[in-house]
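Quick check before the chapter quiz. The format below is the same one you will see on the exam, so make sure you can read both the input and the output lines.
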Amino acid sequence: MSQNDKKKSFIELGKFLGQFSQNETTKNPAVLNNDLFFDAFDDLIKLSQSHNGWYTPEQVYFAIASWSAALTEENFKTWLSSYHFENVKPKTVGLILAGNIPLVGFHDFLSVIMAGHKVMVKTSSNDQHLLPFLAKYLIVVLPELEAHIEFVEGKLESFDAVIATGSNNTSRYFDYYFKDKPSIIRKSRNSVAILNGQESKTQMVALGEDVFRYFGLGCRNVSKIFVPKDYNFDLFFNGMFAYQDVILYEKYANNYDYNKAVFLMSNFKLLDNEFLIIKEDPSYASPISSIFYEFYDSIAALKIKLENDKDQIQCVVSNHLIDKSIPFGTTQQPALWDYADEVDTLKFLISI
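Here is the expected output.
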């Protein structure tokens, strides 16, 4: 089984996923294996919220569209061109996946296979259906993959390396349990935005996408903003207003009511637009339905702070205010070469 064969199977998967949209799901006769998978996947999308209350059809469709856009010939060429796979000795790599957003572990799954290893997957209890379904599609496209993909229940056994994602608490367990294996252990991170008051309303609406996509549950979601001391929050709130319907979702509304009550009982000073709570706080991880803010004196000083806190930060969004920041509205659209925690997964996999 060549790497080119594996690449082609994922590209076919991308074409398959491209048929499904919240606005219009249309069967494309040119897509492989629709007779086996199209109706079943359409049903799975509609059932996802019954498996995980946060996986609304809108959020699942967004995740699917993002992966469809990523799995193209051009993107694979850009991603893989700087790596050398000739000397890779096939190993078994265990994946312990999170379940905070749909298909959050798909990039690790893809990377292990493209690196030439067998993948042994332990899914999160919150996301047990989407990835196994896509794996079945891949196996029908390329039957040789069946020997390279395994889903397990219980603890991982008989593996050579591991990539595990969890909270700061579970990471300590992972560090101990996998201390004798090559590993990537991911902890909790959050994303931030830097504002200077010169942003347009269009940019602020785009920032709302970074805040509210997946209800703010992802590490790439913006959970904190840094603003100058004279910042006027009106423009920020005007941008967030486009997402007011989020409060109509019961689980989000329950979190909003609870967190607002907790903040008020603690006599915290809040800004509130009836669906998003803004609180001044030095922390990075804000509860669902809230976002923290912190004032800065200068961009230069803020750069130093963010560098010191880089282990807590996934993405930085700004209007080119600092190097390596990304545009508003793009945090949940990573490319294949955008690695979580800035740890090159393929490089790690090639080296084991």
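If your answer matched, good. The first strand starts at residue 92 and ends at 96.
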